[in-house]
From TrEMBL:
Residues 30-52, 313-344 are annotated as: Disordered. This is CR-type domain-containing protein. Residues 324-337 have a biased composition (Acidic residues). It comes from the Eukaryota. PANTHER family: DNAJ-LIKE-2, ISOFORM A-RELATED. CDD domains: DnaJ_C, DnaJ_zf. A zinc finger (CR-type) spans 64-149. Residues 30-40 have a biased composition (Gly residues). PROSITE patterns: ZF_CR. Residues 64-149 form the CR-type domain. Keywords: Chaperone, Metal-binding, Repeat, Zinc, Zinc-finger. GO terms for molecular function: Hsp70 protein binding; unfolded protein binding; zinc ion binding. SUPFAM superfamilies: DnaJ/Hsp40 cysteine-rich domain, HSP40/DnaJ peptide-binding domain. It comes from Imshaugia aleurites.
Amino acid sequence: MSAFDSARGNGMGAGPDIDEMLSQMFGMGGGMPPGFGGSGPRRTKKGDDEEHPYQVTLEDLYRGKTTKFASTKNVICSHCKGSGGKEKAKAKHCASCQGKGSKQGLRSIGPGLVTQETIICASCKGKGSVYAQKDKCKKCKGDRVTEARKVLEIYIPRGSKEGDKIVLEGEADQVPDQEPGDIIFGLVQTEHETFKRSGADLLAEIEITLAESLCGFSRVVVKHLDGRGLHIQHPQPNARVLQPGQAIKVVGEGMPHKKKELRGDLYLVIKVKFPDHEWLEDKQALAKLKELLPAPEPAIRADVVDDVSYDDNASLDEFGAGAEGDEGWVDDDEDGGEPQCAQQ
């Protein structure tokens, strides 16, 4: 398929049919020598599949998606029916591959290492015979295939996940004497700014104020993947004060299952926004709040008490960076002088 050249290779398949090779080895038309297997009809080889990544959003996976795109691929020439020659023209034995349709070639598998493999003959495109220039099909120029444009449709079921495969059967490049391969799209989910997914569950962080944490709230806390706003009334009966890092679960608001009318759950992690330092300037309001809040824990008793100052803008990234042991000790005798004897 021309739209995906990186996966197509030479467009004529990966290699010769094993039945063809056995037929040449044993001089038989059925492929398997006597005593090696059944005598049923010869199975048509399937062409190479074409695999491509396909980026989707979490919204696409939640709601499902259908998209169409134009594809250009190789199809069997309709004029010569894939023979490559004019009507009644006779093909000649391919001198390049001696009529085998394949040749032995070397492929590098590492520094200084090569392996021998069977490759399709470039002269006859694996057919074993070629037409003279004057006898070649005018439409395909002897290539046996032509390019055609087709509109393809991808359907992504709701509830799909990253790594799932969307298969378009038989839509890969057509090759003479082969069944067309498939086009396979592997889903790759882009990162979402709000939600994280694990299985059928979703996780998001919501920010509330200290007042909402203590006194409650009634508002939309998050916009879901289908555009709905999720409203929460807090506190509910028997509910507790919401604390930083606490998680609440909204049952049935996770990802849908592909094959069931079920959904996962939505986990909301609480982030409490505390007031800034300017809020402390209102001493009267602060005193009233102190009267309303629970009393502090009993003071710690100690025989010796030191008043210490502190830095309220410290960073835990500096934790452990202080000097240890004698690393902070400086030798006063750095002039290189000789040690002195003690006085008697």
